[in-house]
Amino acid sequence: MYCVNNGKIEMNVTQDLSFIHLIGNASVLVQLVMGMLLLVSLMSWWYIFLKMFAVRQAVQQSEEFEEAFWEHSDINKLYQNVSAKRDRMGSMERIFAAGIAEFVKLKKKHGMDNNAVMDGTRRAMRATYQREMDHLESHLSFLATVGSVSPYVGLFGTVWGIMNAFRGLSNVGQATLAHVAPGIAEALIATAMGLFAAIPAVVAYNRYAHDTTRLSSRFESFMEEFSNVLQRQP
């Protein structure tokens, strides 16, 4: 941009520092880093909402089933009600169904003592418990990876962008802030995007890891209590 000052024509260096302009003028490598961070951020938000609904549903179903379990005196009737749900059963209901199905099957076998029956029942419930926990903990490792790696990926993009900004100063006779500011600004966007991807992932991981740990303890307590109930069955 040119302006006239005391009869002399002078040039003012002006730069468009808008967000879109800075990303568009960034180097190819920095743009790739930004694109990867954006994709990872969108994927982490998708998993965050999936886990939120899954954990909330698991907690609600466990509370409802525990209440029904202690209210019903007839375990067989409760098993029939649970079996009628089929694909709509919760995690604790699947553990219960696996346990009582194995218990009944082993009881029908002649020559098996009560300890062997209970060991088989516990193993069946433990296997179902492990499958349910694997399902509840799915994608948590992805959130942990995003939370730990994204800041470093963004920092790599920032370092590369700043290197390019200072390399560009070698072609300028007199370096000013106007020359280096756009390059540094576009480089710092990569760090900001890395933090934007990492912070929600870390918060969500800590939250859901805590919730799944509590559910795990709840399932294990139920298996012990249910084993005691089955052991008293004739």
Task: Kindly describe this structure.
The chain is mainly alpha-helical. It has one domain. It is built from 7 helices and 2 strands, in the order E-E-H-H-H-H-H-H-H. It has helices at 19-24, 28-71, 75-85, 91-107, 114-136, 140-168, 177-231; strands at 2-5, 8-11. A two-stranded antiparallel ribbon has the order 1-2. Helix 2 (28-71) runs parallel beside helix 7. The longest helix has 55 residues, at 177-231. It starts with a strand and ends with a helix.
Principal-axes geometry comes out as rod-shaped
Distance between the termini: 95 Å
The overall strand count is: 2
Beta content:
under 5%
Question: What is the oligomeric state here?
Answer: single chain
Would you identify the regions where 5 or more consecutive residues have pLDDT less than 50? 1-5, 7-14
Structural domain tally: 1
* Topology pattern, helix = H, strand = E: EEHHHHHHH
Largest sheet: 2 strands, antiparallel
Overall pLDDT confidence: 82
Question: How would you write the strand order of the largest sheet?
Answer: 1-2
Q: Give the structural class.
A: mainly alpha
Instruction: Give me the number of helical elements.
Output: 7
Radius of gyration: 30 Å
What portion of residues is helical?
over 70%
